[in-house]
Amino acid sequence: MFKVCIRRACKQITRHGYTVSHRTYAIQAPGAPTLQVFNRQIKLLQKERAARNVETSRQVDYIKDEVATRLVERLHDIKRHFPHVLDLGANACHIAKALTRPNSDPDLSKLDAAPIASRLSELTAVDSSPSLLHRDATLPFNQDLLLTREVVSDEEYFSYPANTFDAVLSSLSLHWINDLPSVLSHINNVLKPDCPFMAAMFGGDTLFELRTTLQLAELDRRGGVSTHVSPLADVRDVGGLLQKAGFKLLTVDVDDIVVDYPSIFALMTDLQAMGESNAVIGREMGGIQREVLLASEGIYRELHGNPDGTLPATYRMIYMIGWKEGPDQAQPLPRGSGQVNIKDILEGTGRG
User: Fold this and answer.
1) By C-alpha distance, which of 44, 331, 324, 72 is closest to 184?
2) Could you give the CA distance from residue 125 to residue 150 in angstroms, rounded to a whole number?
3) Closest Cα partner for 201 from 222, 229, 172, 225?
């Protein structure tokens, strides 16, 4: 919202023979960012409702558990101890569970077989949904690491002093953030120098099969299109956002996870049980019309169906790693200082 000083633009006022012009200026009011894409209160209610059905909620953890495991595996390459780690947007503490699992890499000679939790002193898990955050508080993995759960009013406005954490992790939470640049800048601020931020979030082509199917079905049955799948960040934008937030030594990569469902109804039921329903501001209220859903099932099968009759759904993950700048941080070599031609390596003729 903009606070505007309302006057007649360029009104002419004569004083002592001089003409003074008054102009109208607009300044951004303090508080929430101007651009609000997601209704954070609706998202909180969706997560709370999903978490209260504990068994159903656990049955649909397959995506969040898998992504948390893949994210935590990247910590194996960082040979250091982490006294205090923040899990931002912890959901049901999937990262904590992944940290306590033994290393499953087949070549244990290259990696430490002990759980990564052995290299952490304390993990602080933060989320806005108390029911989801404490859903698994009684499971055995809680005994394998020092885990502190903290409920915040909103993940966009978490507050910790500067230089507090030795690492910040986030798995499948950032895609619901409205002001992502500010959140990334705040993450950089709470990190200690030369410490990593590692995150995974849904990317732009996630559920493209469902998105295109619903658009075609609504266009056919209703003559128009409404938003049912949330807009997501593109991988090309993530690197720029990290750099703008002050992170160094950036790494951004993409990974697709394809899950087969028996029907479009099973897919949408699982998304609701995950707490991943649509929360876009201005979305059409109420459920999708019956005739649109029936048309969507046929269109989905025709355009994207598998030969065995199942329907694939693609979850595109964007993984990112950035380091807070520090005085003793490793620096890239000067441009042109390389001794080996990358062409020779790719062709198998590298020397040295």
Assistant:
1) 324
2) 6
3) 172
Please state, in angstroms and as integers, the Cα–Cα distance from residue 301 to each residue in 102, 190, 215, 297, 306, following that order.
39, 47, 15, 6, 8
Tens digits of per-residue pLDDT, 18-53? 444 444 444 445 554 457 888 999 999 999 999 999
Q: What is the token pair recorded at 350? A: 């590298």
Whether 152 contacts 126, CB under 8 Å: yes
What contacts 185, CB < 8 A, 6 or more positions away? 244, 245, 246
Q: On the CB side of 24, how many CA atoms lie within 13 Å of its CA?
A: 10
- Cβ-based neighbour number of residue 33 at 10 Å: 13
d(CA 267, CA 173) in angstroms, rounded, equals 20
pLDDT in tens, 68-106: 999 999 998 898 999 999 999 999 999 999 999 887 664
Question: Within 13 Å of residue 314, how many CA atoms lie on the same side as its CB?
Answer: 17
Do 273 and 58 form a contact (C-beta atoms < 8 A)?
A: no
Q: Are 239 and 290 in contact (CB under 8 A)?
A: no
Single-letter amino acid code for the residue at 257: I
Residues 6+ apart with CB under 8 A from 114: 102, 103
Contacts of 12 by beta carbon, 8 Å cutoff, 6+ apart: 19, 20, 21
Secondary structure (3-state) at 88: strand
- According to DSSP, residue 157 is labeled G
CB 71 within 8 Å of CB 98: yes
Would you mind telling me the total number of residues written for the chain in this entry? Answer: 352
- Residues in CB range of 289: below 8 A, 6 or more apart: 221, 222
Predicted TM-score (pTM) of this structure: 0.82
Residue carrying the six token digits 């075609």: 216
